[in-house]
């Protein structure tokens, strides 16, 4: 048996591939476009594993995807492929429309054509799992209950709007064509192989480099933080036994303000790799102009996943963030390799006027 993973060289996708191959013998065909955030170094440990087949390609390419499905006899698709950074979507939304909407449509069309020609038993066993985000639900006020699966969609950025559109397409293909789909909406992930444009890896690297630690606005934007390996275990559980056509929210039960996250990082770095001058890393925190339309709070209600499938996260924020900081300290070569000129240009563009 073989599964197809799209976007499997990115942050969450590569963690899922590594986790999958470490926990079962089933082969993985991994398709990734290898944009700036896709990195084959993430998959170096399985480079020579016969169970892992990497294909550089784009989910917009219908013929490529259909050919892979047919050639490898795929029994499930897990779709991570997406443009995913809100700030990038503000500066350049078209890429998000192309990948997250057009790409999802083409992928669904290829899967529908393949699935429609399977025999009855294979059709019944086939699954398409679409990985999405809590950002499709919009923003919560302090004190409001967390996002449940029934919360209305209210996306507030080009990124979240494009992901919402892809979620709706997945739902429509189930209700219209009977495609056996599952959707997961996760909270903010963190952990190994996280591209250093996001808050946690960016602040770790800036701290170690003696650079400012930029905090948007007042730093009181609240997110629910989910350790990436917990996310991977939840996806496996949904793929195994999730009810067809259903949505499952995946969260870490860890609501934290951005400023508190960065202060926690600083405290851990003070302990694990102190500054040469003995001063605290928190001295490097600076407040910068907030991004347009910045959602104030996200929070995930993951009780449905626990109730139906018995899943809960293993890591607390404290245990997960310690593992994350330790990983980055031990993998500075990985960080150096991903911080290309293109990435530095992006940082300059995003922060120069803030």
What report would you give on this structure?
This protein has about 350 residues and is α/β, with parallel strands linked by helices. The protein has a domain at about 1-195 and about 225-255 and about 295-315: Rossmann fold (3-Layer(aba) Sandwich). Helices cover about 45% and strands about 15% of the residues. The protein is built from 13 helices and twelve strands. The chain has helices spanning about 10-25, 60-70, 85-90, 95-115, 120-125, 160-175, 200-210, 230-240, 260-270, 305-310, 315-330, 330-340, 340-350, and strands at about 1-5, 25-30, 50-55, 75-80, 125-135, 180-185, 190, 215, 220-225, 245-250, 255, 285-290. Helix 1 links the parallel strand 1 and strand 2 (about 25-30). Helix 1 crosses helix 8 (about 230-240) and helix 4 (about 95-115) runs parallel beside helix 6 (about 160-175).
Beta-strand percentage? 15-25%
General form:
globular
Q: In terms of per-residue confidence, which ranges show pLDDT below 50 for 5 or more consecutive residues?
A: none
H/E topology pattern: EHEEHEHHHEHEEHEEHEEHEHHHH
Strand order of the largest sheet: 3-2-1-4-5-6-10
What is the overall pLDDT average? Answer: 94
CATH superfamily of the domain at 2-194 and 226-253 and 297-317: NAD(P)-binding Rossmann-like Domain
How many separate helices? 13
- The rounded Rg comes to 20 Å
N-to-C CA distance: 51 Å
Fraction in helix: 40-55%
Q: What's the architecture of the domain at 2-194 and 226-253 and 297-317 in CATH terms?
A: 3-Layer(aba) Sandwich
| Number of beta-strand segments | 12
Which structural class best describes the helix and strand composition?
alpha/beta
CATH fold call of the domain at 2-194 and 226-253 and 297-317: Rossmann fold
CATH class of the domain at 2-194 and 226-253 and 297-317: Alpha Beta
The major β-sheet equals: 7 strands, parallel
């Amino acid at each position: 048996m073989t599964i197809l993973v799209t976007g499997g060289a990115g942050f969450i996708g590569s963690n899922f591939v590594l986790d999958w191959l470490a926990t079962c013998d089933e082969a993985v065909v991994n398709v990734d476009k290898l944009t700036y955030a896709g990195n084959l170094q993430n998959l170096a440990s399985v480079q020579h594993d016969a169970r892992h087949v990497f294909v550089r390609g784009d989910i917009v390419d219908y013929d490529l995807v259909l050919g892979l499905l047919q050639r490898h006899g795929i029994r499930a698709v897990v779709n991570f492929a997406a443009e995913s950074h809100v700030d990038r979507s503000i500066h350049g939304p078209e890429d998000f429309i192309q990948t997250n909407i057009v790409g999802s449509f083409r992928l669904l069309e290829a899967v529908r054509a393949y699935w429609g020609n399977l025999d009855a038993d294979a059709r019944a066993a086939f699954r398409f799992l679409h990985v999405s985000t809590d950002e499709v639900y919009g923003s919560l006020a302090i004190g409001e209950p967390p996002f449940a699966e029934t919360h209305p969609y209210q996306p507030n950025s080009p990124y979240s709007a494009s992901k919402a559109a892809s979620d709706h397409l997945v739902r429509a293909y189930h209700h219209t064509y009977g495609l056996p789909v599952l959707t997961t909406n996760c909270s903010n992930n963190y952990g190994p192989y996280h591209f250093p444009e996001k808050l946690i890896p960016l602040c770790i690297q800036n701290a170690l480099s003696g650079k400012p630690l930029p905090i948007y606005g007042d730093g009181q934007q609240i997110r629910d933080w989910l350790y990436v390996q917990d996310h991977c275990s939840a996806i496996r559980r949904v793929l195994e036994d999730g009810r067809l056509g259903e949505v499952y929210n995946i969260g870490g039960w860890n609501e934290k303000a951005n400023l508190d996250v960065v202060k926690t990082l600083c405290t851990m770095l003070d302990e694990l790799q102190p500054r040469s001058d003995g001063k605290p890393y928190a001295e490097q925190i600076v407040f910068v102009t907030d991004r347009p339309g910045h959602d104030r709070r996200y929070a995930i209600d993951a009780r449905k996943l626990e109730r139906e499938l018995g899943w809960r996260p293993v890591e607390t924020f404290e245990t997960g963030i310690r593992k994350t900081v330790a990983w980055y300290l031990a993998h500075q070569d990985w960080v150096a390799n991903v911080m290309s000129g293109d990435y530095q240009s992006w940082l300059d563009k995003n922060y120069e006027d803030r």
